[in-house]
Write a structure and sequence with these properties.
Blueprint (H helix, E strand, L loop, with lengths): L3 H42 L8 E6 L4 H14 L6 E7 L6 H11 L4 E6 L5 H10 L5 E4 L4 E3 L4 H10 L8 E5 L13 E3 H7 L12 H12 L2 E11 L11 H8 L2 H11 L1 H11 L1
Parallel strand pairs: 1-2, 1-4, 2-3, 6-8
Antiparallel strand pairs: 4-7, 5-8, 6-7
Helix pairs in contact: 2-3, 7-10
Length: 280
């Protein structure tokens, strides 16, 4: 027979799963209905689609081949390359420095690429440095292990951001293959006003992880975001694809930073509440 302690544990697990299921149903419907509402509101308002300059932020390390793969997909799928700027940051001891420079030279006639070679301790600090040196209306932190798969994704960004008053902070979640896209987005995109209100893109509490998660949490708390399925990127993550494992991935895993960042995440909820209120 099952003792009382085991029964309690089974009951707690059941309640936990029910709560998870209800949250999924809520956020799925919320993001879906919000998209429909903002789309119809924009359509009948007869507002024009505003064309924006886009800054892509890319810290990278020893991944010149992946960088070029991403770059090729970006160029093929982008409608107007002239309004893009790609800000690339690599470390001073990166073994692929010459390879990165050669790739940039090959594509510089198609796309504006600014390369920064300096040492910064964390992923957030790297992104914040690039954001500070960016000039775009939209700020798009990306990874070197993604490829752009949706045609005219930049035009769709214009459409989605035009559904909101651009004088206010706003965030657009894209389809990056997350299982529960309505909970979390890898590579969320924010407008310049968002950055100005907070003074950062990534929270510098963390060592490496949680940049996207932090942005998404602020988005949900302030309710100033939109989930679109019209912009799609595919990530060739080393977490799930063995042939994508490289020295950079192994270094990040072996550092133990993920476990440290998990604890930091739990201890910084109060700060997320404060920062989300700054955006409203």
């Amino acid at each position: 027979m099952i003792n009382k302690s085991k029964k309690r544990n089974i009951f707690k697990k059941l309640i936990k799963e029910i709560i998870k299921g209800l949250r999924r149903i809520y956020w799925f419907n919320f993001t879906y209905l919000k998209y429909i509402y903002l789309s119809f509101k924009f359509k009948f308002s007869k507002k024009k689609i505003i064309k924006h300059k886009i800054s892509l932020l890319l810290p990278s390390r020893e991944r010149s081949k992946k960088f070029e793969r991403m770059l090729k997909s970006l160029i093929i799928t982008c409608k107007d390359l002239k309004r893009l700027e790609l800000l690339l940051l690599i470390d001073t001891d990166d073994k692929d420095i010459n390879e990165y420079k050669q790739i940039i030279k090959e594509y510089e006639n198609k796309l504006k690429i600014n390369i920064f070679i300096l040492d910064l301790q964390t992923h957030a600090k790297r992104n914040n440095y690039l954001a500070k040196n960016s000039s775009g209306d939209l700020i798009f932190p990306i990874n070197d292990d993604i490829v752009f798969t949706s045609d005219e994704w930049d035009h769709w960004l214009d459409i989605e951001f035009s559904k909101n008053n651009f004088d206010n902070p706003f965030c657009v979640w894209i389809d990056a293959g997350n299982r529960y896209r309505y909970f979390h987005c890898d590579f969320p995109i924010v407008n310049r006003k968002w950055y100005e209100k907070l003074g950062y893109i990534g929270s510098e509490y963390f060592n490496f992880w949680y940049l996207d998660t932090w942005i998404c949490e602020l988005s949900r708390r302030s309710n100033i975001f939109l989930l679109t399925y019209n912009i799609i990127v595919k990530q060739f993550s080393a977490h799930s694809l063995k042939n994508e494992i490289d020295n950079t991935y192994l270094k990040n895993i072996e550092s133990g930073d993920q476990g440290k960042d998990d604890i930091i995440w739990l201890n910084t909820q109060k700060q997320r509440i404060i920062d989300s209120k700054k955006l409203i």
